[in-house]
Design goal:
It is built from seven helices and six strands, in the order αβααβαβββαβαα. The chain is α+β, with helices and mostly antiparallel strands. Helix 3 packs antiparallel against helix 6. The N terminus is likely disordered.
Amino acid sequence: MLGYMLQAKLRIHEVTECFTRPRRDTKKLRELIKPKLDALDEIPYINNGGCAVVALELSKHIRRLGYKPEIVYLFRTYESNDYERAVNNEITTCSHAVVKVGGGYFDSSGELDADYLDSYKYKVALSPKYVKDTLERGDWNSCFNRGKYTPRIQEILR
């Protein structure tokens, strides 16, 4: 478990200020990834159990475009136990997984607006390795057909 702490270099944040509105520093990125996100939009239940798959693969795609993304797990409440597990580097799930680039937060639907992001009280930036482990061993929403659609997500975001 200590290995995760050293590898992930977790940054734990209690969100005390409002998230920012979409910023100009992400305008070019929004344009670059829009066709990919439009293709993802056809996958059923992608944000009901597939958000971490998208966050992992989207972060890889964005990195190849020359940006420095972070994968962030969002939590609505501290009491959810999932937040506590993430803080302690234990395998967990989250309320939603997104990719942070500059001042923007992205999921399969595009850049998220401040009103949506403000509904999450806590966020944890995690390493891709940790996210991959949570995908393999976490108890994710079964609405999303991981076996069927993960290869499709990987193909779209290649």
